[in-house]
Design goal:
The complex is a heterotrimer of chains A (about 100), B (about 110) and C (about 140). Chain A has about 100 residues and is α/β, with parallel strands linked by helices. Chain A contains 4 helices and 5 strands; from the N terminus they run βαβαβαβαβ. Chain A has a single domain, classed as Hypothetical Protein Ychn, Chain: A, CATH 3.40.1260. Chain A has a 5-stranded parallel sheet. Chain C is globular. Classes of the chains: A alpha/beta (about 100), B mainly alpha (about 110), C alpha/beta (about 140).
């Protein structure tokens, strides 16, 4: 069984990402969308938490939502993969379950 | 939904006559809107209409009348940057009327 | 001039994910017609509203970030950004749009509108306001 978690809330405004990462098991994927994309940046208070999780889970971020918010890809945590809408669809079909954290 | 017909194309407007999609705007629409309000557009009108379109392009809003007046004064000269001049051109209100002709929404801050 | 009140708009949310940022901006612009003494403050995720380089083409939402540059035209030139909020997000003032206003009394000299202040300074500024609106 593989699971994709999507998170659409900012990690410094809500605890959604933290809750999600606590429950994401080895092999799970986490896709950051909408205001969730701020969780993918380095140098922020949320960075360490995400880096710690990345040993076990793959972290993706939706490119169009990054661009909308003026977050340059050069700011991302090493290892975070940027996907477009097609990549979003692929992630949902590649995994058995999708858990949308809202 | 009301619409303006021009050169075989139909342009949707709201109940007050403002164009719904500002990207559709063509100058001919302004002439039709003006005719509807018994106005004839001169170069002086176009100066203001074009200014408004440029302002929207840059800031994504239609300016309030006070802001428009000040900005026109700075760009086109003090003799034009006053409400008397602008109201003579656009008696229904330089914000409301000129924005309509320019295909923009009603000015933000239009009270 | 006794009718002039000090208005503070608090902006505490990221843009686009919710409608608060745009709603706040619209209220600020509409309120500007009343010639009050207006300040804006950006705290928490609100600082993200001022990020430069926003491009919403692919998400199909109106990019309202260019509108902040019009605030100077509306005589709104006190834009406070909380330093601690920038730090927590790994941001500096260089990551934000360069917002200016023109000082009519000094031959339209361009001046910076954004002032980065500490929480302690912001608390004092907030304490001096007559009306506070939070978004």
């Amino acid at each position: 069984m593989s699971i994709l978690h999507t998170v659409n809330k900012s990690p410094l405004d809500r605890t959604t990402l933290k809750s999600c990462l606590n429950l994401a098991v080895k092999g799970a994927s986490v896709l950051l969308i909408e205001d969730g994309v701020y969780g993918a940046v380095s140098g922020a208070e949320s960075t360490q938490m995400v880096q710690d999780a990345m040993g076990d889970v793959a972290v993706y971020v939706l490119g169009p939502d990054l661009k909308a918010r003026g977050v340059d890809e050069s700011r991302l945590i090493d290892g975070v993969k940027v996907v477009d809408y097609d990549g979003f669809v692929d992630l949902t079909t590649d995994n058995d379950t999708v858990s949308a954290w809202v | 939904m009301a619409a303006i017909e021009l050169d075989g194309k139909s342009y949707e407007v709201d109940e007050e006559g403002y164009l719904l999609d500002l990207n559709q705007w063509v100058p001919g629409l302004a002439d039709i809107m003006a005719k509807d309000e018994d106005a004839v557009l001169t170069d002086a009108h176009w100066e203001v209409i074009n200014f408004l379109r440029e302002y929207y392009e840059e800031y994504q809003i239609a300016p309030a009348v006070r802001v428009l007046t000040k900005a026109i004064g700075k760009k086109l000269g003090k003799d034009k940057g006053n409400s008397k001049y602008l109201y003579e051109l656009f008696p229904y209100g330089p914000g409301k009327q000129a924005c309509k002709y320019a295909g923009l929404p009603k000015p933000t801050g239009c009270v | 001039m006794s009718n002039v009140k000090k208005f503070m708009y608090i902006n505490n949310k990221a843009p686009y994910g919710t409608i608060y940022a745009w709603e706040s901006l619209e209220v600020v612009l509409i309120g500007a017609a009343f010639d009050q003494d207006v300040s804006l403050m950006f705290t928490g995720d609100g600082v993200y509203q001022l990020m430069k380089g926003q491009d919403t083409k692919e998400v199909g939402i109106k990019n309202f970030s260019p509108t902040y540059a019009a605030l100077g035209d509306y005589d709104i030139n006190k834009i406070y950004v909380e330093k601690e909020s920038l730090d927590a997000r790994g941001l500096t003032v260089d990551d934000l749009m360069h917002l200016v206003w023109e000082d009519e009394d000094e031959d339209w000299a361009e001046k910076d509108s954004i002032r980065v202040v500490t929480s302690a300074e912001l608390a004092e500024i907030l304490d001096q306001q007559d009306v506070v609106l939070s978004f």
